[in-house]
């Protein structure tokens, strides 16, 4: 067996059109046929059969569902890369995993050096509300700084990890998938960081303000540093993940599984679902914080549906 470079295809004998069956590393089989001994200068009949087979594939692609087109893309859309042994390809995977792990380790260690500054930064929304923090057990602050450094380091290393993943995957994608990959990755990253900023600047102060105001006059706000950071980190990460809604919508729209009209027709269910999701994702139980998260989720959903409609309008003239 041999494995195509990049995303790769495992090649073996296949009875169809006397060619080879190629399986991409993402486990998406394609049907491009090419015998191991094929030579365009010496095998004109084989070349003709290959062309005929590609015409048949193109006809089948027009009549197939979006999922079938995704799993079995048109051979003409596949990249014409050189072949490499499967062990060399696994070696490339090992190297990229090591680079990603090294980037995460260096970022976490660097954040641990500045962990106290990060802790003071994340304490800002609570300190503005007049809250003071306590260390209720030996080592509580130390383990809290480890947790903060770990989360911050992973966030800093995300671009490097994404680059290694994309560099490993992109050689096996079709031409249209390559053109679509960069906007999706870039948009997803931007939305995630916007979600973190939204949580830190709006959600967290609103939730903490509600708790402090509710307890005012009854108890003094002395909070455990560990429980506070558990609250803040969960709220920020859940908000960042929830901001990925438009990315999922665009992916569904591009694959043809859902249209923009179908998305907009389900807006009532989206309102209910966003409310439930906000109640699950936010660690607090006050309705004000849940409403602050539910409203952006609904707006992001409508924005994602508008983006899908825009892409559909651009695709329509090309199909005519």
Which helices and strands, and how do they pair?
Blueprint: E1 2-4, E2 9-13, E3 20-24, E4 29-30, H1 44-63, H2 66-71, E5 83-84, H3 86-113, H4 115-127, E6 132-134, H5 140-169, H6 175-215, E7 222-224, H7 225-242, H8 245-254, H9 260-265, H10 267-281, H11 287-319
Parallel strand pairs: 6-7
Antiparallel strand pairs: 1-2, 1-5, 2-3, 3-4
Helix pairs in contact: 3-5, 4-5, 5-7, 6-7, 6-11, 8-11, 10-11
Helix percentage:
55-70%
Please list the strands of the largest sheet in the order they lie side by side: 4-3-2-1-5
How would a crystallographer describe the biggest sheet? 5 strands, antiparallel
* Total count of helical runs of at least 4 residues: 11
How would you state the average pLDDT, rounded? 76
- Secondary-structure element order, as H and E? EEEEHHEHHEHHEHHHHH
Secondary-structure-based class equals: alpha+beta
Distance between the termini: 42 Å
Radius of gyration: 26 Å
Unreliably modeled segments: 1-47
């Amino acid at each position: 067996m041999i494995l195509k470079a990049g995303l790769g295809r495992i090649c073996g004998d296949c009875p169809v059109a006397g060619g080879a069956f190629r399986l991409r590393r993402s486990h998406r089989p394609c049907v491009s046929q090419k015998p191991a001994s094929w030579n365009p200068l010496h095998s004109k009949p084989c070349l003709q059969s290959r062309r005929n087979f590609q015409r048949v594939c193109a006809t089948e692609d027009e009549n197939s569902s979006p999922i079938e087109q995704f799993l079995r893309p048109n051979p003409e859309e596949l990249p014409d890369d050189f072949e490499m042994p499967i062990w060399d390809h696994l070696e490339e995977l090992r190297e990229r995993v090591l680079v990603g792990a090294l980037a995460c380790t260096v970022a976490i260690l660097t954040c641990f050096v500045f962990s106290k500054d990060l802790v003071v930064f994340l304490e800002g929304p609570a300190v503005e509300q007049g809250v003071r923090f306590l260390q209720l057990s030996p080592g509580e602050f130390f383990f809290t700084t480890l947790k903060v450094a770990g989360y911050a380091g992973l966030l800093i290393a995300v671009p490097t990890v994404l680059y290694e993943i994309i560099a490993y995957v992109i050689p096996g994608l079709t031409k249209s998938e390559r053109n679509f990959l960069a906007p999706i990755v870039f948009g997803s990253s931007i939305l995630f960081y916007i979600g973190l900023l939204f949580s830190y600047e709006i959600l967290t102060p609103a939730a903490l303000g509600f708790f402090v105001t509710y307890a005012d006059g009854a108890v003094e706000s002395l909070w455990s540093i560990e429980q506070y950071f558990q609250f803040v980190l969960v709220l920020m990460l859940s908000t960042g993940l929830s901001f990925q809604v438009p990315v999922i919508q665009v992916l569904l729209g591009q694959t043809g599984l859902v249209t923009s009209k179908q998305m907009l027709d389900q807006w009532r269910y989206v309102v209910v679902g966003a409310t439930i999701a906000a109640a699950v994702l936010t660690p607090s139980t006050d309705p004000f914080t849940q409403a602050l998260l539910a409203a952006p989720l609904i707006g992001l959903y409508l924005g994602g549906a508008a983006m899908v409609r825009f892409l559909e309008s651009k695709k329509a003239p090309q199909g005519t």
